[in-house]
Records
---
Amino acid sequence: MTLTAPAEVLLNPLRDPQDRRLPRIAGPCGMVIFGVTGDLSRKKVMPAIYDLANRGLLPPGFGLVGFARRDWADQDFTQIVHDSVKQHSRTPFREEVWQQMASGFRFVPGDFADDVAFEQLRETIQELDRERGTGGNHAFYLAIPPSFFPDVVSQLKEHGLSQPDTGSWRRVVVEKPFGHDLESARKLNAIISEVFPPESVFRIDHYLGKETVQNILALRFANQLFEPVWNSNYVDHVQITMAEDIGIGSRAGYYDGIGAARDVIQNHLVQLMALIAMEEPVSFDAHSLRVEKQKVLRSLRTPSRLDLHTSRGQYTAGWAGGQKVPGYLQEEDIPRSSTTETFAAIRLDIDTRRWAGVPFYLRTGKRLGRRVTEVAVMFKRAPHLPFDAAETEELGQNALVIRVQPDEGVTVRFGAKVPGTAMEIRDVNMDFAYGGTFVESSPEAYERLVLDVLLGDPPLFPQLEEVELSWQMLDPIIDYWADHGKPDPYESGTWGPRSAVEMLARDGRVWRRP
Ligand code: BG6
């Protein structure tokens, strides 16, 4: 099949017409961001849009509209985007790309209850359609706290912004956390679905946009090597760790009352778990993936002994990166009596033939020893070792570790003979590192996800059912914690509270020290 290059490709000499990414270039469109002054917009979304433009994946007439309660003109908004791009973009700054892009920036001042502002937004979008050929195709990115979603989506409806004309599209992008429990997630969805049909709602879980997370599917389903041992006959347990060395920084307003389990277990870690545990999908289209992920989530068993199989903690003062850091309760704007957990670990079981008896341990925390996210599939020991016990003293369990970040790659750990006259066996690692293998650096998760929104490509966006099922699993744990005192303290820079160590020790296991 010969691909005809779109006009914008022909205009851009940096593009190779044989480039296999051609079908993945966004057509005429624009994006409206609500919450342009927030961290998410400045550090992730705007830089990602620039990186996409720089890689030639956006149409030259792309329009970007900022909406916020600020007394700004288009130039002020342009300056904000400029600063954020300069500071946070992955790819180098190129003046000609910037100029082309910046000519499509518009700013609409107003708050979410302001009818006049939404009228102005409608006119701005029409003007972009006329002047830049955005074709009536617009995505509304809600980079705002969920409490404002109802106001914004109903305003979009009132002002005729949510309804596309024939042949064009309107989409809404919402960030996690989608609700703070099952009930609120359902309510939120009811509000959004009154305005946008399900196929126009894109829920972002940025972990699904990470290359290494997508590589889980490649690793499992493109190879013959791993799948035969990917089950309870060979796997002892799985550890999924998302550790951060940072504290909550300036995010007190968001984080306090939310905590580690709602912030990342309900979404990122449960999604990682689903990709590790699911059966092979018929294809990688959204429906087939969803079906398989949902089967895993439906088979999840929340522990019956929440006192034994969960742990939560809160960091106290300590050290991070050689610097003395305050405890959570001393952070700015955190109430001194807060019981919000900054560390959470839970054991989950999956009631399927493949995973019966194989616990999945999920843990996450702020102010831990270092920043690392990994999935470690820990294998059973060989059923028989024909060696003297002393010779295998240093032999651990075989492991396959998917290093999500940093130092992206995969490690296989197995036993090897130590050189010498004795038969001494010790663990060694075999490594694949993205950095050493591929020339091109991995795109940021938001690049992939923003592009998928503009292309209307849904596989990497969790569906409502997945969100509901993961709240269903988490709600009893969070309720239990709420009724049972405070989180256990752990010193900043360590690997979490004692209760987390004890939780695994009871099962005869230990956490990996990444
Ligand atoms: C976000 C959480 O979803 O993920 C943050 O709200 C967390 O608390 C962040 O810091 C981590 O993302 P990443 O991509 O740096 O691992």
---
Amino acid sequence: MTIASTPGPSACNLFENVIGFFDRAAAHTRHDKGLLDQIRCCNVVHRIHFPLRMDDGQVRVLEAYRAQHSHHRLPVKGGLRFSPHLTQQTVMALAALMTFKCALVGVPFGGGKGGVRIDPRAHSPAELERLTRRYTSELFHKRMIAPSLDVPAPDYGTGEREMAWIVDTYRTLQPEDINHLACATGKPLALGGIPGRREATGLGVFFGVRECVSIESDMRGLGLEGGIEGKRVVIQGLGNVGGYAARAFAGAGAKLVGLAEIEGAIHAPGGLELEEVLAHRQRTGTLLGFAGATDLPDPSAALELDCDILVPAALQNQVRADNAARIAAPIIAEAANSPVTPEAEAVLQQRGVLIIPDLYLNAGGVTVSYFEWLKNLNHVSFGRMTRRYQRNIYRSLLEAVEHLHAAGGGDGGQRNALPAGDSPLPPAPPIADEKDLVLSALEETMSITSRQVHDRMKADHLPDLRTAAMVLAIDKIAQTYDYMGIFP
Ligand code: GLU
């Protein structure tokens, strides 16, 4: 994953922000205080120190974490983050977000998050491998990694490679676990990964925004009717999330008017050609200097550009009290986790800015992680058992229709005869491959969740989508606790 920007001032306490959002929503529910306390608290935080032998022979002690926010469903699920700015509070906050996210999109997991406090760019691949394997074995010995207990995935600063090291380490420690591939998701395809996982979060962001923008009655108030096509979009962060979201927006006819990365941002009111921008960055190592665009050496200036949809897809705490008043976008789509602080949100809401919350908007990654986990437990890829059979069914169906079509009116107008026509029958639809199945299920999940959140907001007269999403998540988690027998 590309590191899009350094985090904002750590003065913003992410855990308090998430808890603040929770408490605000909880006030709109009727659950028992004790139950709400249980849903809110972080069940387990494991803090570890372990040594890393550097390539030059020296030893460095690293600090690492794994938080399991909620055990109401197992396994707990959430990414592994490598960042020099990582704190225990951040990991706990991100784990809590995972709990609510999973509940919202109907993924049957509790929330977790882990991380190692390092700058991955300052380490060689060999050092990264050693520390990832050591971290995995530390978790293993505390029973904090297993397909049924806790399943990490890529996050900021980690990717498929790290997941492969995790799986390989787990397998050596637990060789009798036939489901070992399911101990991490976001793996390379060759090691039990699933097609579509890489683009899942970014695509999910796009599907969620598209659904939101399709509600004409809401868009009228913002003067943004007419769907995604032609909408002016600014994206901060072109890593795994922002990059794929940018592609999807451009593919749907939106105009990318601003793009930001760690080294700076570029702006072109007429629109930027994404693939050309990416090729330019590949060639020169920077977004800056792209022909026809204006350079913004301070990447955070991109957040303030004139546009219809702002997509912060980098890190938390990007829109804060100090820049909220200058945000020009009427819609903010939270592709990153917690990019808008509560103080900023208050300022933006007063101005009628619509915030599509991270709570479900960036849940595409974990949704497809769920499919990957299922595939690993099933030990068979989606569609393998049915693809040929379906093709045969389609073929027979088509032959039957062709037969009736050829018979046309010549059979005396029987009810099941088709009128003979000159136009050929349309070709049979292609049989879905695994990626088609995964991405269509992702699209369905994001569309349904977006609608549910919107409908709940309207039905209960809730103040905003974030509150509605959190209320829905709390309700779903509370229902699970109802059956757990801990509140007799
Ligand atoms: N790190 C991603 C997230 O924050 C993915 C988590 C997962 O797939 O388990 O949603």
